[in-house]
Specification:
heterodimer; A: mainly alpha; Helix Hairpins; 3 helices; B: 193 residues; mainly alpha
Chain lengths: 104, 193
């Protein structure tokens, strides 16, 4: 309880920004997904820091739920990515542009 | 008594600061690795590095249960799932990072990211980082283990959300099975080959 909470919040904000920038500049769908995970982790770090600063267990409970939602999101997201890859014909690496292949 | 404890406290402060700085370096290095490494496998391994750094920061903030879950669920399950998909699909070839999909997208992305960071920090600073009622949902400090307090809160105050997450997980499992199932017309093509 010695390092000030604001340091953690600054670190989390920087981590979130790196994740957001990565999501915008990368075109590989898997790497974009990993950038979303980075952003989720930044938010988790913020919640844990708030839990400590406000001495409130509720912040940690929210992180617990975020973890569950992140796990569900990854499962469905990777399923979608697998189905994109299955429909793809070219030998180039799959990018976000290939999402149109899923159009019904 | 207090005077004897003071040097110990100073050492503890230095250790805490050192842990924070080392973990911050690990977290940021891993994050930059995820964004800038060209091979998706390397990105996934950098993600593990970031997740471990965040787990240590959780321990430093006395969220012991969440640190364990972070390592088990994120590093153990989610990243392995990523690596599994990378290996399954054979996409571990390097991306042509220098090709820009949209002209001027990259500088714009950096600008937007930096602006967002600046605004968030300004907003947080203007609001004194964290204000509000302390311990509204039960104290995080005090006697008792972290797991005990977390469990008590989840199974009393947050019981309904907890049940809803069970439904969410079932939906996710069903969705994953439906998505991963090979549709009939593709299956026929697969048989022809």
């Amino acid at each position: 309880m010695t390092v000030d909470g604001s340091w953690y919040l600054i670190l989390a904000a920087v981590l979130f920004s790196i994740g957001a920038i990565g999501l915008l500049i990368r075109r590989n769908v898997l790497v974009m997904f990993m950038c979303v995970e980075l952003m989720l982790n930044a938010v988790n770090l913020t919640f844990v820091t708030f839990a400590r600063m406000l001495d409130d267990i509720g912040g940690q409970v929210v992180v617990f739920f975020v973890l569950v939602v992140a796990a569900a999101e990854v499962v469905v997201g990777l399923g979608i990515i697998v189905s994109i890859f299955r429909r793809r014909t070219g030998d180039q690496g799959t990018t976000a542009d290939d999402l149109h292949l899923l159009k019904g | 008594m207090t005077a004897a404890l003071l040097p110990l406290l100073a050492v503890a402060t230095k250790v805490d600061l050192g842990v924070f700085l080392v973990c911050a370096a690990i977290v940021l290095t891993g994050a930059f690795g995820v964004v800038f490494l060209r091979n998706p496998v390397h990105s996934a391994l950098s993600l593990v590095m970031t997740l471990f750094g965040v787990a240590v920061l959780f321990v430093a903030q006395e969220a012991h249960f969440l640190a364990a879950v972070q390592v088990i669920v994120y590093s153990g399950a989610i990243v392995v799932l990523f690596l599994f998909v990378i290996m399954l699909l054979g996409v571990d070839r390097e991306e042509a990072v220098e090709v820009e999909g949209l002209k001027g997208q990259r500088p714009l992305a950096f600008g937007v990211g930096a602006l967002m960071l600046l605004l968030v920090l300004l907003l947080a600073r203007a609001n004194d980082w964290a204000t509000g009622q302390t311990g509204a949902r039960g104290l995080a400090s005090g006697p008792g283990e972290n797991v005990e307090k977390l469990g008590r809160s989840i199974f009393t105050d947050f019981l309904l959300p907890f049940e809803v997450t069970a439904v969410l997980l079932v939906i996710a499992v069903v969705g994953a099975v439906v998505l991963a199932r090979r549709p009939p017309q593709l299956r026929d093509e697969g048989d022809d080959q």
